[in-house]
Amino acid sequence: MGVIGTLLLVAAVAGAGQESAQAQAQAQEQAQEPGAGWQRFVDPADAGFSTGGLAGAWDFAHTRGVPALMVVSRGAVVGAWGEVDRRLPIHSIRKSLLSVLYGVYADRIDLDATLGELGIDERTPLTAAEKGARVRDLLAARSGIYLPAAGEAAEVSTDRPERGSHPPDTFWWYNNWDFNAAGTAFERLTGVPVLEALHTSLAVPMGLQDWRPTDAFEHREPDRSIHPSFGANLSTRDLARIGVLMASGGRWGDAQLVPRDWVELSTRWHSDIDMRDEYGTAYGYMWWVDGTEGFSARGYGGHVLAVYPEDELVVVVRADTFHDRFVSNRALGILIDRVREAKTGEAVADARLEAWSGVVPEGPDGRSGPARAAPSRPTAADLAPYAGVFPLASGDTVAVAASDAGLTLDYGRGVFDLIPLEVLAGGAARFLTADTRDEVWIELGADGRAERVLSEPVLYLEAAAAAAAGDVDGAVAWVRTAVEAFPESPSARFNFARALHGSGDRGAALAQLDTALTLDPDHDDARRLRRSLGVGRFLPMGLGALVLTLVLLGVRRLLRR
């Protein structure tokens, strides 16, 4: 057992009497890791939680637009709210999953291997000093290599340290180059592609309920870096399984899936950090560390997987970043604190457990999110005309595939089922993407085959590419097309307002924001921009065009990362 594990054990023993410890042990015997399904405490009080406290936590989450929240104690569900089976982007939580994979393959990993020894280089060749960075330096974000990376936010380039300013293992900086190169190092050391390992060595043995291999994807930006990033869309209940794995010291059922030593090593202090309190006080090997209390994986926009081993507690919070519905770091901190404060006692010895499907029933209280469209079952022959690979002006492609199971759409951030909504005149059809809930139009040509695919994300990819090429008018035109094609979409209206604002047309931007807020009065980003424009803030044309370009480049990176 490592130092952190020893400290946690000592703290647990010192803080509980023998009778309480026996009760906890008996509860642990009852509620182990979930199998094909989950177990749930019949009464949260049996797990030591206040029902009122948990209800208050969800009420707070619901008002902040959280689409799903899940609380697990000792491997069993204490509470779950919202669409816990809906696959959502994990963004930077991918880094913590890669850290877990390093543990799964620990017998093939040499943390002290240098980049030079592994033959790892870059589009801009690495210096001799940079090639001296070790694998452990990549995992701890301490490589001292400050170069552009695939999938990083647009604003990173403005605050990246100067190249060569810090030797390896002397300075911590949250660095996508390190994380992406860690993926390359993993593949060099193990001989297994990251996405393959994620599926065969984690998702399959853990029985992730909603996982499909196509939910993970690789993203390359060869003009920036030779090292790809990867992304994935995971459900809340599947992320909770990862949390249970880590809370149990890497054990899953009868197997030690991740060595306990690796769990302790990767989730303990390796660097002090100077960020907001919500992130904790330190950084481990691609995990955020909160002193000796716990650790967390965090993704852009409000996705959190928080693990508190001493309490055997896992909390998962999600955000609908498909549609820019962000949850602030402050709100996340308040929410997780409220969940932890709802634990007012210890688990009882005879805790009552029941089988749980892992799906929250939809009801009139709005806690389960928007109702799903009921899928129909066209035949493969009916769907074949809508399939094809469609090149975009941006150089990207959109692929629609037909099978007996239905249609799927792939535009670079996962593969999504297409749910038929209606067939339009001329044979064109409207669909809804599962999980993302984006409307998609597929238009047929004179030959009866699909010739064009329209959806908001696809149009934003086109707009971002135009902006990157310096064609501001073209970028605005693509976003205008999104509004014309999807006039009832508050996101389309909001993004058009941002584009108009960036191009200097304040009056038109205000009109679009008013429409967005009519369609969705709870659209916080639209409300904030409306307030800003309402007090007369505007940009000079030249600066506006620059901001538009940055905004659309940011949209492109958001779609990909």
Helix content: 25-40%
How many helices?
Answer: 19
- What is the residue-mean pLDDT, rounded to a whole number? 86
Task: Assign an overall shape.
Answer: globular
Give the C-alpha Rg: 24 Å
Beta-strand percentage range: 15-25%
Which structural class do you get from the secondary structure elements? alpha+beta
Q: Give the biggest beta sheet.
A: 8 strands, antiparallel
Major beta sheet, strand line-up: 3-2-14-13-12-11-10-9
For the record, give the distance between the C-alpha atoms at the N and C termini, rounded to a whole number: 36 Å
Low-confidence stretches: 1-31, 363-375, 537-547, 556-561
The tally of strands reads: 22
Walk me through what this model shows.
The strands form five sheets. The chain has an eight-stranded antiparallel sheet with strand order 3-2-14-13-12-11-10-9, with helices on both faces. The protein has a seven-stranded antiparallel sheet with strand order 16-17-18-19-20-21-22. It contains 19 helices and 22 strands. Helix 14 packs antiparallel against helix 15, helix 15 runs antiparallel to helix 16 and helix 16 runs antiparallel to helix 17. The two termini are 36 Å apart. 38% of the residues lie in helices and 18% in strands. The protein is of the alpha+beta class.
